[in-house]
Amino acid sequence: MNRLKQVSAQTTFKKGIVVPSLLFILSVTFISSFFPELTATLLGQVQQWIFTNLNWVYIWSVTLFVFFLLALVFSKYGSITLGDNDSEPEYSFFSWISMLFAAGMGIGLMYFSVAEPIAHFSDPTFGAFDDIRRAKDAQLYTFFHWGIHAWAIYGVVGLSLAYFTYRYKLPLSLRSCLYPVLKNKINGRAGDIIDCFALCSTFFGITTTLGFGVVQLNAGLVEVGIMQSKGFGYQIAIVTVIMIIATLSATSGVNKGVKFLSQLNISSAVLLMVFILLVGPTVFLLGTFSEGVGYYLNQFFNLTFDTHAYEPATQPWFFRWTILYWAWWISWAPYVGLFIAKISRGRTIREFIAAVLVIPTAFNFLWMTIFGNSATWLDRNDAGGSLSKLTSSADELLFRFLDYFPATGISSALAIFIIFVFFVTSADSGIFVMNNIASNNAAESPKWQLIFWGALLALLALVLLNAGGLQSLQTMTLITALPFSMIMLMFCYCLIQGLIVDNHYQNQGFSPATSNWSGEFWKERLDRIVSFKTKDHVDHFMMETVAPALEELSAEFNSKGIVATVQTKEKPADVALTIKHERLEDFTYGVRNHAKTISSFLVNEGNIPGVIGNKSYIPRTYFGDNRLGYNIEYFTQREVIADVLKQYERFLALSSEEKNEIFTIVTLKSRE
Q1: Is the domain of 469 the same as that of 542?
Q2: Which parts of the chain span the membrane according to its record (predicted)?
């Protein structure tokens, strides 16, 4: 009992997040393991209904994410730094790209590099087309599924997290992305629910990837003769080794293990890609890469908005691929977004979006072209369609593909190594992210927590793999993508609200009363600055300072033959000087008592005296041409006169220019 209390005292776990999440994770695992067929059937029906009837939600959500990020790149907000204005990036550009890439795509590149293009190429849905058209479309659809749209999903979550964490100094947690809407409620139950969702989604996503990926790794090890069969015992050994290394990497920290393995992974992947390019149909591959990019750009808008509503025969393929991919990327967004945000401090918004959208997309296009087009080329020429016949055995397809190249043993061994390291990098970053969510971004957590998540991942992945429940878990993960897409749209809204406030705060100028102030009577001004005025206080200022100033100025105007009048209203105070004209718009300089809401944080701040309630009042100017006014609460009587003359001089200067007549000349309609 004492030992249990000691462990509890040392943990950084937040009970409101961890306890509900573990109960849900264990319950789903239990049901999926003991009733795999029933669960798979029921969840499959729910997924099919969503994909059939609500596929347009996925299409429009992903489309909005793409154009939202592109708009930010070219907006004035693009130069905002994810952190303090003088923040510097924590990682080198290569390390940063390597880590976000390994977390974002990981094992999928190896699993689908050959399998997806061959699947599209041989799909009966496109059987009416000739081989060339099917090969080009196979490349196009693969580009579409692995391109900008996928990374835009990750980018929205990653950018929102990085912005609110490093700019607003909030925890690195999904709840922080909703701060403009929830305010302090993010620290309560609403925030816990959001983080529970993120934790479960991350856990299920990594578990299913680990389980299915082990099958491919097992197939590769059988191919090179290291293992004799695809038995469950071998899969236990693979999972155990992967999770031990992943846990060691996670406990060593991002700066060491995760960073090193990510760089090693990318370097190894590039080596294999270059090998296939050089020994494969090199000229053909380089030519199809150029054509493929052009075809993708030409079809970009058609692909983006297409729901196949006019082509019901192709809709099953559309649901099975495009909608499933969008759901899968969205379900992975909490995990990948959290990790990307963790490593992106110090980058500007423009740099973040450009790098996240363009660089991984360009690499994916090159990778999928070299592997995918080599596969379709072989299938059309040397292989005689044998690769197309293996689409139902995707875990073996990559290794069967490598059989057609020289040094098969070496290339297969390298592929196995890359798959292995991809697993480790996905798992170690996943362990790191899950602990981060569970501890609500605690500064330091005991290492046993990271070991706990690694062990739980390994155990449940093996249980589900043995019981046949991984498919159910994957299906449920895809279903949860629908509500999370709505949450992501809220992230976009909140991010815009945060950026607007940020821009206003950073560019807020000084009060007009400071423009020509010499510092005279500074004690009196200090008294005014630290006091929050009541309505009666401002009314008094306007009647005792503003009204006499305007009356004095009006008398001077009239003495020079310019008819000027002053209108005064006491409750609420409103004083205005007006000079009427026949052909020009009237000149008006007015001041009225204006109420403004004070931040609740300032109201509760004990080191600022004089705050009573959440309302303060200021004497605010207004003008005849409906321009925005400003606060003149610190003006003396002479300064009010000077300000009116400044505005009147501006009025005359603008009225003297013919190009401004649309604003200054009285039209018939306005006169009526």
Answers
A1: no
A2: 12-35, 55-73, 93-114, 143-166, 193-212, 232-250, 270-297, 317-340, 352-371, 410-438, 450-470, 476-496
